[in-house]
Amino acid sequence: MTSGGDSPGMNAAIRSVVRTCAFYKIECAGIYRGYQGMIEGDFISLDARSVKGIINKGGTFLKSARSQEFRTKAGRQKAYNALKNANIDALVVIGGDGSFTGALLFSKEFNFPVMGIPGTIDNDIAGTSHTLGYDTTLNTVVDVIDKIRDTASSHNRLFFVEVMGRDVGYIALNAGVGAGAEEILIPEEDLGLERLLESLKRSKESGKSSSIVVVAEGDKIGKNVFELKDYVEENLPEYEVRVSVLGHMQRGGSPSCFDRVLASRMGVKAVESLLANESRLMVGLMNDKITVTPLHKAIKGQSKINKELIRVSDIMST
Ligand code: F6P
User: Fold this and answer.
1) pTM score, whole prediction
2) What does DSSP assign to residue 32?
3) Which of 46, 55, 199, 305 is the most exposed place for a label (fewest CB within 10 A)?
4) Which helix (H) or strand (E) holds 245?
5) 121-130, 131-140, 218-227: which range is least confident on average?
6) d(CA 100, CA 282)
7) Residue 264: how many CA atoms within 13 Å on its side-chain side?
8) CB 245 within 8 A of CB 216
9) 283: left (phi > 0), else alpha (psi -120 to 50), else beta?
């Protein structure tokens, strides 16, 4: 099943899980609409040919949802009954933080074997350097910021570009460095409004004609991007400011080669782990090796932003 916000590479991961099952001659079913479909018994039998032609497709053909009902004990009981009725005896959950929290609870309550595959563009999962979809999203964001830069420099403007990342700054930091942003505002580092103004002032004085400031949607500077625009225009009238909120286009599109390969590797490991009677683990990538981490260690707040990259970003904006 896929659950939570979709991400590019989820289809490639489903394909990998299904084909690995076919390889080991295990029956495989897909669950539609995440935990909600699990509660409703919305399953489909999948064989190796059912997943043809999807490795290059964004989104998830099994669809995804954020289920409120699964948060209740009664909802999880219904889900368990539906799985048992369908003779399903192990689960691979492709999703993010919330999906893993649900999977862990469910596994403990019903002693049900589960494996997690990290699929979220936010990259906010510990135990893996990359979640599925993150690389594709970075490429999408860099591509769009390059385009914004063209118009920003034609008009000598400053752009605030808001990128996704509910509570974290991975997309902002990496895409910001990749696109040559002057400043990057992320929740992990509070730049502060005064320092932002100083930095923009310095930027003008050093001869830069246009500027891009990348802002993570979860940034905690205390103002949203539109308020930041007003604040900068009030305090630095020499700047003409525009805002671009990239939104859900960051989650769509064909997965990068990196995400397709990662999805294929992770799907194999997830099924092989279940076959080895392992459970409550998440498959991850560490130093280009496929690894497993206990699900409870993968969950929120435990992934760490790269401090070295913050330093690189500071030096690059000189
Ligand atoms: O978790 C992935 C993500 O795209 C976040 O970056 C964003 O805050 C959130 O999902 C948006 O969720 P929804 O599509 O439900 O509005």
Assistant:
1) 0.96
2) T
3) 199
4) strand 241-245
5) 218-227
6) 9
7) 11
8) no
9) beta
User: What's the token pair of residue 251?
Assistant: 């989650």
Q: What is the pLDDT of residue 209?
A: 83
Closest approach atom of ligand 1 to CA 251: 4
CA distance linking residue 178 with residue 139, whole number of Å: 9
Q: Residue 129: left if φ>0, alpha if ψ -120 to 50, beta else—which one?
A: alpha
Q: 132 CA to middle of ligand 1, Å?
A: 14
Which structural domains are found in the chain, ordered by start?
10-133+255-300 (3.40.50.450), 135-251 (3.40.50.460)
Measured by CA distance, the residue closest to atom 10 of ligand 1 is 5
Ligand 1 site-directed mutation target among 249, 251, 303, most atoms within 8 Å of CB: 251
Pocket residues for ligand 1 (CB within 6 Å)? 5, 96, 120-122, 164-166, 217, 251
Nearest CA to ligand 1 atom 2: 5
CA Rg, the chain, in Å? Answer: 22
Which residue type, as a one-letter code, is found at position 28?
A: C
Neighbours of 101 (CB within 10 A): 17
Q: pLDDT, tens digit, for every residue of 189-239?
A: 988 899 899 999 998 899 888 899 999 998 888 889 999 999 999 999 999
Instruction: Find the angle CA(26)-CA(31)-CA(34) to the nearest 5 degrees.
Output: 140
Q: Whose Cα sits closest to atom 12 in ligand 1?
A: 5
Query: Is residue 122 annotated as a catalytic residue, yes or no?
Result: yes
**Of 6, 97, 122, 135, catalytic:** 122
Nearest CA-CA partner of 46 in 21, 10, 67, 72: 21
